[in-house]
Amino acid sequence: MLTIHADSRGHALAVKGAWIAGAGALEELVAAHPQARVREWPGILTPGLINLHGNELLEEAYHPDPREADELGTEPITGEALVALAQSMDAARWGASARRGVQRMLAHGTVRAACEELRNRAVSDAVHRTGLAVMGRIGRPGGTPALDPYDAGLPVEFAEPRERHSAARFAVFDVRDEGELAERGARTCVATVVDGRLVYRRR
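Below the sequence we write its predicted structure tokens.
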């Protein structure tokens, strides 16, 4: 089934399966695809974000389960605090942490993570099952690892442009324009689509 995603500016994407079938003004796409389902979102449609700190956030940090919040808090655990958890970090726990980490990245509009080779097999398997795209990198990118790429202290990178016949990977942010997005950051994400699937929607 074909779905048209539209933002508050009238910009729209027609998505069929995992691919973008058309891009343009909402009224034009509705006229071209009258049987399509239409999803209208607040804010702006953009290509999804690239998080440059894939290794740091997925296999060098532990993302606590919500049931552990009283003991461990809700923020990613790194450094000495992670070392203190080492004895209890078996493959199952690492895999669950990676899945939660990916979900938190998706909630910030991220559709690609830049990584050197993921050496933790449980993390690698979990990430590949989520649909988050992994792209290569060489060395450490600098900056500060953050779920919100706008908090990393590096130029923010977006995935490939949204064009007809390209993969349907994009995000929606509840802001007026790209300037407000840069000011308020990716925590304004309301929806993330990966390979045509709505993988995150703010409740």
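The mean pLDDT is 94.
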